[in-house]
Amino acid sequence: MPSTDSAARELQDRAVLWSMGEIRATEVVAGACDALVAGLDSPALRILAACTRAEADYDVPDLLPPALDELGLTFYPVGSVAGQEAAVRALAARMLAGELTPRELAFRIHKRFGHELPLAERLAELDDEYDILEYGDRASAQVDADVTVEARRLAQHPRVPAESTDA
Known about the structure:
single chain, mainly alpha, 2 domains, about 65% helix, disordered C terminus
């Protein structure tokens, strides 16, 4: 059984990936269930975990923010820079856990953020390198290694507070 800290981190990652459009609401509900099993508990988390697959797309937007708040976690507003950076770190952690290949990580980051997010600029550049491998002298394994180094750096990057939603 995962620790409550790792369950909280996983729920936080799923929340930010959902808010940035990277995963479906049903994965957030599954994360809430996993968090309960790991020992996290709050009234809103229980309600979130009780959502059916049919309800998830409709209910997660209203249920997730209070569940995270009750657990002392952050809900990142859609489109916020802090949320984008948290999503990059969450995707990097997923790659390091073997859920994505280095090329998939670089592609997804580049596709979602282009060269506009300074924190993820190196991954966007590395995605460009994958595209020109056949014309250069680098091997795919070399670019994979560079992506892995960058993913480790991103996964260790300090967390930043959410941006204010007052604007």
